[in-house]
Amino acid sequence: PPFQNAELGKRAPRWIRDNEVTMCMKCKEPFNALTRRRHHCRACGHVVCWKCSDYKAHLEYDGNKLNKVCKDCYHVITGCTDSEEKKKKGILEIESAEVSGNSVICSFLQYMEKSKPWQKAWCVIPKHEALVLYMYGAPQDVKALATIPLLGYTVDDTPRSADLPHSFKLTQSKSVHSFAADNEELKQKWLKVIHLAVKGETPECQNE
């Protein structure tokens, strides 16, 4: 569960592993070859970039020693606030962990768009928006790479020979999104949900 502000610094957090994220969990900057230094906030355990980890605060669980913390924890622990108002979260800014924990279905799927190569994406259909498919780079990412409003799409679930075996396509006029599951069972679970969503019906929860 996310840390309650009152507990910040009082006990050691669970560290999010480096490979669970592809971007800074605070400013959403992707980690790439240049900015690939990943830092952990010692208060909340989130993975952040160097810019967002440039703060220090005294942490009770570490004998009140000064520790590297992220901007948010720094403000909570020290009581200093930023005068700037937090910008409204855009539609893509819903955290994956948040939607995955409350989703109709979520899993990794291979995804292909136009003639780009297949890539692995963490796909989620959240309960609060059961007609929208969110795609993330990894399960702990704090910003979606894309969203597909499913209503009105046509589902084509017969893979061509060039496709991955358990694939299906969503098409609407010119846009075509191809997905592939790791196995037939997972593919059918997704199709069950998507067949309803494209008709505007709310699917049953498939997350066992």
TrEMBL record:
Q: Which BP terms in the Gene Ontology apply to this protein?
A: cytoskeleton organization; filopodium assembly
Entry's Gene Ontology cellular component terms: cytoplasm; cytoskeleton
Q: Where is the PH domain?
A: 102-199
Q: What are the entry keywords?
A: Cytoplasm, Cytoskeleton, Guanine-nucleotide releasing factor, Metal-binding, Phosphoprotein, Repeat, Zinc, Zinc-finger
Q: Which PROSITE patterns match?
A: PH_DOMAIN, ZF_BBOX, ZF_FYVE
* Domain of life, per lineage: Eukaryota
Question: Would the keyword Repeat turn up in this protein's UniProt record?
Answer: yes
- Name of the featured protein: FGD4 protein
Q: Which gene encodes it?
A: Fgd4_0
